[in-house]
Design goal:
The complex is a heterodimer of chains A (about 625) and B (about 450).
Chain A (H helix, E strand, L loop, with lengths): L4 E4 L3 H12 L4 E5 L13 E3 L3 H11 L3 H8 E7 L9 E6 L1 H13 L4 E5 L2 E7 L2 E7 L4 E3 L2 E4 L8 E4 L2 E4 L10 H8 L4 E8 L2 E3 L9 E3 L24 E5 L2 H8 L6 H4 L13 H7 L7 E6 L6 E5 L7 H9 L9 E3 L2 E8 L16 E3 L9 H19 L13 H12 L23 H12 L4 H23 L1 E2 L3 H9 L9 E2 H6 L6 H7 L8 H31 L17 H10 L4 H5 L6 H15 L4
Parallel strand pairs in A: 1-2, 1-10, 2-6, 10-21
Antiparallel strand pairs in A: 3-5, 4-5, 7-8, 8-9, 11-12, 11-20, 13-20, 14-18, 14-19, 15-16, 16-17, 17-18, 22-23
Helix pairs in contact in A: 1-10, 2-10, 2-12, 3-4, 6-9, 12-13, 13-17
Chain B lengths: L1 H5 L3 E4 L8 E7 L3 H9 L11 E7 L5 E10 L10 E7 L2 H13 L3 E2 L4 H8 L5 H12 L3 H11 L2 H25 L9 H25 L1 H5 L1 E6 L6 H11 L6 E2 L7 E7 L2 E7 L9 H16 L2 E7 L6 H11 L4 E7 L18 E2 L7 H16 L8 H23 L2 H16 L8 H9 L6
Parallel strand pairs in B: 1-6, 7-10, 7-11, 11-12, 12-13
Antiparallel strand pairs in B: 1-2, 2-5, 3-4, 4-5, 8-9, 9-10
Classes of the chains: A alpha+beta (about 625), B alpha/beta (about 450).
Chain lengths: ~625, ~450
Amino acid sequence: MKYDVIVIGGGHAGIEASLASARMGANTLLITILAEQIGASSCNPAIGGLAKGHLVKEIDAIGGEMGLCTDATGLQFRILNASKGPAVRGSRAQIDMDRYRIYMRDVVLNTANLSVKQEMVDGIVIEDGEIKGVETHLGNIYNASKVIIASGTFLNGLIHIGEKRQQAGRQGEFASISLANQLRDMGFDIGRLKTGTCARIAGESIDFSVMEEQPGDEPPIPFSFRTDRKNFNPEQLPCWVTYTNEKTHQIIESNFYRAPLFSGQIEGIGPRYCPSIEDKINRFSERPRHQVFVEPQTRESNEFYLNGLSTSLPTDVQIEMIRSIKGLENAKIVRFGYAIEYDFIQPTELYHTLESKKIKGLYWAGQVNGTTGYEEAAAQGLMAGINAVLALRGEEPFVLGRDEAYIGVLIDDLVTKGTNEPYRMFTSRAEYRLLLREDNADMRLIKYAEKFGLLDRDFIDKTIYKKRRIQEALEILKDNYSTPTKEFSLILQEMGEQKINDKTAWIDIVARMKEPTKEKLIKLFPQMSKYSDEEMEQILIEAKYARYIQKQKNQIDKMQEMLKVKVPEEFDYSKVHGLSNEIVEKLQKATPPTLFEASRISGITPAAIEIIHIYIKMAQKGKV
Amino acid sequence: MYQEMTKNTITATATSGGSSSISIVRVSGENALDIASKITNKTIDSFTPREAILSSLYDKENSLIDRGIVIYFKSPNSYTGEDVVEFQCHGGDLIASEILSATIEAGARLAEPGEFTRRAFLNGKIDMSEAEAIAKLIEAKSVDAARILAKQLKGEVGIFVNNIREKILHALAYSEVMIDYAEEDIPDDIIESLKTKLQNLKNILTKTIQSSERRKGLIEGFSIAFIGKPNVGKSSLLNALLSYDRAIVSDIAGTTRDTIEERIRIGSHIVRVIDTAGIREAKDKIEEIGVARSIDTLKSADIIVALFDISQELDNEDKKILKHLENIDKNIIVALNKSDLKHKIDISAFEKYNPVKISTKDDFEPLIERLKDILDSYSTEEDLMLISQRQIDAVKECASEIELSITPLEDGELEFFSYHLKEAAEKIGKITNPYDNEEMLDRMFGEFCLGK
């Protein structure tokens, strides 16, 4: 059988990859070990969070499915960091993980150009350094010139619960051994990582009356720019907060010797940012307690997830530890927590398109690239899917800049720096954080949605119109000034804002407001009344950020000017003394034509680029 | 262009001209050893790193120029970090220039001012503050300046910068944790404690700026402005001071016709002495300008010496001068001249200045002593001293970003707080590593005399 694109794995990366590919018109095959588990949430029943919410919004703005599915199956919606500024707010939703999975499976099965096979890929077929297809455990061969590996934790997956070990891709599912071994044999730079999850508790055994209730936001705000915000009114369920205590810590400590994490049984490196409870107790022994979020897994609330209590301790220790926690004294454990070790590829083996440098046409996406998180996985899946199709068509690749999207930051970090621990997105990783907000993801990325045809024409037109209106409003605010007349000062005073002392641009008046609102803006500048609430929200944010945004844009321009600088032919990097041997070697080998290409090479730091830049400039003046 | 780059071995006379007993020509770059081999007619293997060898030195036509010491410093253990060869020859401009020509004939190119130090900087041998210290040390003319610069050469500023940067990054890390881990239990008092820490940090920076600006004179020479009405004896005092120490550095004509500048040495200090036109009721436009200038001079001087005639009663002009002194926050010395004549002046008018009595005819020691005391007090301060306007500006910018970060911190707008902290860290980092500003590098290294 011949396809255009084959996607291996039906998790968050595999779904976005295969949907993007099929929706762009490529004949696509998704191969998964268990079709029921397409879109399964192996870990927590939640989508989004800080920086991760940004990724979901960006995926949505380019035409991915994650945001829509979250809105359709969400149990609780919250904006984190709501008290801080818009740039660092993060949307988070609790999802009904069963309904999420079913929604995704149905979308995948009902998408044109997309076929699904429940088989296990045992190997990839390669000829002359190019991918030709895959072979499955049933002996079937499927041909395609583009293959995307989105295998999550399945490659050589090994589960640990206490002393017990078991090969599995996820609890209860087969691990992918044969493919993993082939990839290792081919000489890919494969390493081991570890991640883990917590025990799941029967809802009827939990005493919620002694826990703190954590309700969703009212009104709930949906993820997808395509969801109708006005009519978005899902019934929300609360989460609950309880805490570990000294007794819990003592139980864990006295069983350290049985923890696979400390006994040497686990070799892979776990996520520093999402440590297991035994790791937290070990590293922060002075903390008297740790938070535990008790989160519903489905609308029926039969099972609860204990966020903060990921563990691979033996089952008897898990029971004792959980029952030492307030409200969980009678907890019945349905599924035990476990750790899983798996193979990942060092992502410096990949181009920015996520295509392998070694094998043409072979793409890698998601957790197998060393990331952690559904959102990070989905973002890579989407980008790999789009790029596979663009390559098929012989078109320019799709690479997002660090100044354009968190997705750009994510992939750039991965392929240029590589990773030795599960990589998680943070807002602090984005240099241009003030520009890359959740609230403007649609306007930032609409041109790409339009280019790849992944969104409805209507929606695209609507977004472009909104963007234009907001720009126009900002122009008005920049071009008009007010003078400190008595009347004007009085209006400002009445609304509790500082008065002005000089002729001041409107935008600056808004920027210095303590609490800018639509009402205040219209009262001060009546011509602003023509803008809708949604537009006004953006106008206020942009005005407040204007000064900073301008500075960040200047920095970007400066950086881009620098990256345009051509590297002279036969340039000898070994002459540039500030560079490490490793960097010199990489650059000598790659001979990038400009600093831009140089900056894209893995391991080449911005500081190195700056040194080379100075060196080239001085050489041009004949000073070196 | 690439041609230029490969021709990257540079040469210069490292010693200043004149009739010194030895001169040194220094060559740096990948062909240094090759050049040494050509000039000495010895094979490359004859040179052992850091070993001084006596050799004849020849020009291109193979005729003997001189006999001298040749020392080879192997990369990276040299001043520039490249291969360096030094030729020590007999003194005098002639021999050195012949050797210089020989090195150029042998493949080196004449270095630009500051190029050796620029290379040392680019090759990571020194940081920017050390490069600046070297530049100033070459020019330094006082013991105090040399002492301060030597401290900088030991990396004192680098340590200061790193220390400040560490503290900023520490605060930044807290902010980033509060942003990216909003869900975690974070102690409530973090913001208060951050605020206190940053305010302390800002105070340190402000103090460093102030104490550096106050002591700028240690490097550049302090300026002492003289004020007094005509005939109070300013000119004779100046003449007396000039003859007091023969080590006159230079005579610099004043920038205006109203102020005259001279350099003299007092104790271990080089000072610039500025005479002002005086302050009186201006009778015309030109005089008005003169008076305004005098006031500016007073404001820019480190020390003001106000002269009054002890043998006369205070007149209007004296009073006017006294009134101006009230508004100037500087070290002020009131000198009552003509102490050999009968005292007529009302001394109580100067009480708060603790005036010194002098006679420009035969006794101005009390004034010299007072000046010395003040000048010495600058050099005994042990605080870190920033030695260039560039360093001071960077610290000022850093302090201003820290100041700007405090309001968003109080308002909980941590993304702005972080933004300003990042800027602050970048600004202070520029003192030692100003990589992205090439023009600044040009300007900076252009200040060097040739050869360093």
